[in-house]
Amino acid sequence: MSHKITTHWKGGLTFESDNPSGKTVVMDTNVEGSEERFGLSPKAMMLSSLAGCSGLDVISILDKMKVELDDFKMEVSGELTDEHPKYYHTVNVDYHFYGKDLNESKCKKAVNLSVEKYCGVMEMFRRFSKVSTQVFFHSS
């Protein structure tokens, strides 16, 4: 399977990129002397892709396990190298589960399956960075 996208320059330092889903995303970066932003930072979007990929796995697995959650979120942080080309050398993914009587073992199992087996973006990150994960439970 292959994917193809088209990224179109929209002027200045702003680009719009399509996706096989038919949706688009706008990307840009900080411009010195300007506070105005139109899109997402390409590097930070990589962290969002990691969270999205793993989150889709976790929720799909928990649905199959019939685990109910009140809420779920992930916080991903990445440390960039000092030298160009700058890339994330260290990435941390925190999984936060919210609910009453959470089945912690099933939540942890879903995270582990995503991290170790299913999340292709996680595997890509492992090729160039040290990835760590933590799971947190919040009862409501």
UniProtKB/TrEMBL annotation:
GO terms for molecular function: peroxidase activity. It comes from the Bacteria. InterPro entries: KH_dom-like_a/b, OsmC/Ohr_fam, OsmC/Ohrsf. Its EC number is 1.11.1.-. SUPFAM superfamilies: OsmC-like. It is an enzyme of class 1 (oxidoreductase). Keywords: Oxidoreductase, Peroxidase. This is OsmC family protein. It comes from Winogradskyella pulchriflava.
